[in-house]
Batch of 4 targets.
Target 1
Amino acid sequence: MSGSDRSPLPGDEDSDTGLDYYDEEDEMEALVELGFSDSLSGEVKPRILLMGLRRSGKSSIQKVVFHKMSPNETLFLESTNKICREDVSSSSFVSFQIWDFPGQIDFFDPSFDYEMIFRGTGALIFVIDSQDDYVEALSRLHLTVTRAYKVNPDISFEVFIHKVDGLSDDHKIEKQRDIHKRANDDLADAGLEKIHLSFYLTSIYDHSIFEAFSKVVQKLIPQLPTLENLLNIFISNSGIEKAFLFDVVSKIYIATDSSPVDMQTYELCCDMIDVVIDISCIYGEAGLPYDKESMAIIHLNNTTVMYLKEVTKFLAMVCFLRKESFERKGLIDYNFHCFKRAIQEVFDVRLKVQQNRKLLSQRRWSKLTSMSNGAASNPH
Ligand SMILES: Nc1nc2c(ncn2[C@@H]2O[C@H](COP(=O)(O)OP(=O)(O)O)[C@@H](O)[C@H]2O)c(=O)[nH]1
Ligand SMILES: [Mg+2]
């Protein structure tokens, strides 16, 4: 879409970030994408909606996670006036759209076609400002979730209890318990216990927002069990303790082996990716800071080794292993080579499935439009 055929947008502050806006053309595109089947669109490019009251932190989350904005800069973000849509297609696995909503969306406004929006939605993130009074936010959450569930019961509902940086640990747990209880009580009162809400404590000032987003995105990856399985096989045959598959740009981990994740390990991985990209940008040859040759080894002072290697153009594997195990680097590299090939196969299958689906929905769409054209020209 060129800039000229877009209607003028008041406060168009995001026009330079590649963000796109919801308009009629998008709606048309979305309908084609929908192909009149919810499951199809859910598979092809799931939508993640960011909703919540004004100033709860939705735009900040999007900017920090996907645009590398530093948290302090979000203080100067202007408020969002319309739905901002952004495509995140950094890898075939992490391919989705994020829709950032202005706080004051009115479900009773007839021009807001929420049915169309919810139909193609994979996850709805509702952001609650934990530093503010959250009574209004909770009633808004209830309204949003019940509306969305009616249209599409397959949406995963994610509640970000946000801005927890200002709270003590005890306070955080207490807030989470209270919000959890009240939100579920409201649903139970409406006879909707079957709606499942997941809760996360988040802040843009630490890694919690990246971790929460990782979990949201993972639920939208149908191949997740396959990826986990491949990682399990890889680590058990290579003497590795923990391995993550990272989307390098967003630092979202799209999969890990089945052992539990602790926050510190995740933070170390994020720091390692930052170091590799920064060094490469500053001292590397001109061109892309991340390519086929990208790899790094860091020896920590507790006999642990961190090993990063390129998997695809956008994905990196980050592993933790003991110093002794790293002596068999040849074996690790060979196993990694096999792992990479297996990942490529998963990608290829997914690509084929997606192409077939697209073709199918395009055929249905053209059939339907030709039928409706025929009906218009022949009223009998
Ligand atoms: N302390 C704190 N402030 C935050 C956090 N996230 C966002 N904010 C601030 O909240 C304010 C509103 O953010 P904004 O993204 O515009 O909210 P939106 O209206 O929901 O899009 C901004 O001043 C942000 O700096 C957070 O995790 N912690
Ligand atoms: Mg906003």
Target 2
Amino acid sequence: MAKQRKDTPETGKQSSDIQPAKGKLGIMIPGMGAVATTFVAGVEAVRKGLAKPIGSLTQMGTIRLGKRTDSRSPKIKEFVPLAGLNDLVFTGWDLFEDDMYTAASKAGVLERELLNNIKPFLSSIKPRKAVFDRNYVKKLDGTHVKKGKNKMELAEKVRDDIKEFKKSSGASRLITIWCGSTEIFLQPTAAHQSLKAFEKALQQNDEAIAPSMIYAYASLMEGVPFANGAPNLTVDLPVMRELSRQNEAPICGKDFKTGQTLMKTILAPGFKARLIGLHGWFSTNILGNRDGEVLDDPGSFKTKEESKLSVLEHILQPELYPDLYGKFSHKVRINYYPPRGDNKEGWDNIDIFGWLGYPMQIKVDFLCRDSILAAPIVLDLVLFLDLARRTPELRGIGIQEWLSFYFKSPMSAPGLYPEHDLFIQLMKLKNTLRHLRGEQLITHLGLEYYD
Ligand SMILES: NC(=O)c1ccc[n+]([C@@H]2O[C@H](COP(=O)([O-])OP(=O)(O)OC[C@H]3O[C@@H](n4cnc5c(N)ncnc54)[C@H](O)[C@@H]3O)[C@@H](O)[C@H]2O)c1
């Protein structure tokens, strides 16, 4: 029977200083496509009791507190003060004028019957004019676009939108989450190194500044937290880290972890745990939604590819296990195939080896629905970012590494490698919540049960 020896560290922190989630939470979404509409329609469907928020940790997840014998496992949403679904209000930007009902119908993810049940609500959400430039997303072209003499003026227009939404919606707090298309591959330049350099570059229309960065700058200037669902640099830049800390607007990204990469971060830690070697991992996808069309452009694909490729290196740590992972081959392909729509098919061929080097193979054929997997991530991220903003210990630290759980390319402090293992990420997330509430962290040591 368990004795009372403590083997879990106490954090010594108390939670009383987290501000309550009072009033409405405004969600602002650049990019009102498949993911955004599946998320917003889903929230409304759950609010109306038409469906359940499957896949959402904030809505369905529990958190164990204390010892296994304590039987304390509250729901996460009862353990930390999160905004309730009824308090969420929405706006967005897009270069197409479709309201959310039309956009959701075109995306073809959710069934017509469900959409019709919530049609008046969805139709009421109309996109604001986008900051858009075809040089950054070659496959798209639209007319619902802001004009300005330079990028600074465009940023000011986004800031005006943010202020207007706050006023008209009556929201007490705001969050921005990028659900826009994947932009071309860019690398940080001198323009991204400081606020001063970035603002000068905005005035000079510097090509190093992509539209997503303009939304990020505008949000952070308004003190609004920003999450990035695509692999673009966007907030993963020194200037944004500086702004985030300065204005106490938490940031996180990049690239929602869904589909094939989710599977990779579930399987690869398992191989490493059992010291199973890897010769190679070939991943290919077919998908036919607009995201697939955008990724058909080599510039946008390169951004995505970089994000997808980094995962295995970080999880498998070849430098620590040269005999197992020293020279594996890793390929990722995405093919745009219209008949599939949002229902992607991802094939993985995994060449592994075991005892004495004997080879084996695993094949994964995942018939997945990308936006169905992404929508609960969007919900959790906006609720957790809002929590971070209300928590004195988190709001001024910039990157919220504890939200790595949701991303293919998690952001981490400069010089620190990102954590990709889904299970470590989940432990980090839950331990952060325990820490905020002054609960003991859980190490899973468990010797006290056998004293
Ligand atoms: N669905 C997933 O599982 C998943 C996973 C990881 C990342 N993502 C990323 O999330 C993003 C959205 O995916 P989706 O399937 O909804 O794509 P989508 O093509 O259906 O929607 C993207 C929307 O963004 C709009 N857009 C593009 N540039 C814009 C700009 N500058 N301002 C405002 N709007 C802009 C497009 O017009 C489009 O409506 C993509 O970047 C995708 O790579 C999706």
Target 3
Amino acid sequence: MISKLISKETALVEHSIGERIRRIPLWRNYFAVSESMCVPAQKQADRDVKHCEPLQTGLKQGQKLDSFRILSMKYGGTSLSNVRFNLDNFDLLAFVTHLLEGGALMTLHGVIHRDIHAKNIIVDSHNVPRIIDFNLSILDYQSADADMLAHTYSPTLMQLSPDYIIMNALYKNTRGLLYDRVVNDIVYKRQFTKKLGTILGWTTDYMRAQIDAFYAHMRNAHMRNAHTVHDSIFMHWFNEFWPTIDSWAIGANIIQLIMHLSQWPRFVAMYNAAKPRLLPILRGLCAIHPLERMDCVEALHILNPGNRIIAKYGVSWLSDAVATH
Ligand SMILES: Nc1ncnc2c1ncn2[C@@H]1O[C@H](COP(=O)(O)OP(=O)(O)O)[C@@H](O)[C@H]1O
Ligand SMILES: [Mg+2]
């Protein structure tokens, strides 16, 4: 177990998120979240006492023990940004499948993580990845509103899809964030876009055209005369595309991992063998236009048609997706 000592307010939020994630079937295989919370004290009457390290020092003047909580969770390994895979027993397709299973379970349960980057994926000693840090997540997609979705303008973060960056920037409409400037940032300045082009074989012009096609789709459907994105357009975008927020991010992490591991010839051989199955999935997960983007359930189904999570929980999701396309 690992423990963290944080303010009571933060702990209450994080722990209630943990409670929600722990209701997802098989959650332990795919996620690591807070499992117990207790008040630090020299003597514990709490039933979670066995998880708690008594706090003895470190309180500033005026702070009371009661304003802190200790959260405990299973140790899940090293973050994906730091892990050193032993390539002898690393199976790229199994790794991707596992991440997609976690993503599919979240999607099927209406959870949107929104911040799946390489430090929020931890990898254990068996090369099993788990998603952590649900602090920005939307736990029930039907309860979301525009203020919950909005964030600061940050086009460099690879976990954000181009459509999310655009909708968010135009919704916030601060500092003169106009469409052309935002597209310019995404297509020409963002490092991750270059990686995407390299791995998936997409030209800059193609990616730019896909972004314009997305924007035209939004304008035609929802914003004929509007020059900025307001609440309702932001929510139209969300309602149509929410399952692709995390699937983009999972695809982006895999692409980043492939770029990183490609410095080892051994990995390149493994990647080349996996390419025929993997590339269509990556092109689907990281499709620039969200209308063309696969969600994790769809991607998992294509990568691994007999998958037990799909068979058990995903069949009606897939038939609904076929019906609406
Ligand atoms: N269960 C865990 N097992 C191993 N490392 C963890 C675990 N939870 C968190 N960490 C490590 O601590 C870091 C910060 O935790 P995180 O929950 O992402 O909080 P923050 O909100 O500060 O990003 C992670 O990037 C990861 O390296
Ligand atoms: Mg984090």
Target 4
Amino acid sequence: MTKKISGANNCTIQEVSLTPNASESGGNYFSVYNRVVVITGGNRGNGFAIANGLSNAGAKVVRIDLAFDNKLNTEDIEFDLTNQTKIKSLVEDITEKYGRIDALVNNAGVSIASANPYADESTYEKTLSVNLHAAFAMCSAVCPIMASHNSGSIVNLTSLGAELAFPNNPSYQISKAGLRQLTKALARDWGEFGIRANNICPGYINTAMTAKSFTDNELHQKRKNNTLMKRWGESADLVGPAIFLISDASSYITGTDIYVDGGWTANGGL
Ligand SMILES: NC(=O)c1ccc[n+]([C@@H]2O[C@H](COP(=O)([O-])OP(=O)(O)OC[C@H]3O[C@@H](n4cnc5c(N)ncnc54)[C@H](O)[C@@H]3O)[C@@H](O)[C@H]2O)c1
């Protein structure tokens, strides 16, 4: 909508119109109230924190995980994401119940230590299956549904390993590099249907996945010292960025990476 400024000749300003959701939520651009959010790997760690934060902010959260021992105000579905042939019907069931899917957070992931990661096919296959193929199948199932209501936000949890080399974990790094690029492909192909896709790229966060280096004094200090903030991340550090990317506050942001790494990637060293 264009607005004339009184007293100024031929001068107009472009008024930014609130999207329907923002106006419904009283102009709170960060609102995720009533949004239907599906999150994978929501039982613990980063996924648990994000699911909890979204649920507390009023979103209708559906968690998918192997099993649940952490209760939240969410719908919890026990499902092994390596069963990719069943993902389409899983997503159809969720859509039938809620009528729509406003956001998908591909968070489930594995990082498997291996004595010989270049010869260990099972590690490679499992890592790619959970971290990349499941996310691809989830997006393939969810995008047509989001497109049918012309809106949606996909948030993929990548890693510094999507771009930087870390020792002895090639499968993880390949999977996260693929996921990072999947996000950009989604943004390219589904943007005109109202779907945004972005990466949250965490640094070292204190979860079960990183317990070994968190509890190793030398590695703990090294990781801490390489951040500009001189601390490890907590899963709670990811909640704000996830809410931002799912809410209308990020309505023109797509195909990009948000680093939540305490300054790791900005650190020039010395
Ligand atoms: N912790 C970090 O420092 C860090 C850094 C960068 C990226 N990440 C990413 O954040 C995401 C969450 O990691 P986290 O640190 O919370 O790890 P985590 O191991 O604590 O949690 C991973 C969750 O994924 C679930 N999951 C694993 N395989 C699954 C499967 N086949 N089907 C369904 N669910 C499955 C697990 O049950 C678990 O709840 C991952 O994608 C990880 O790669 C973590």
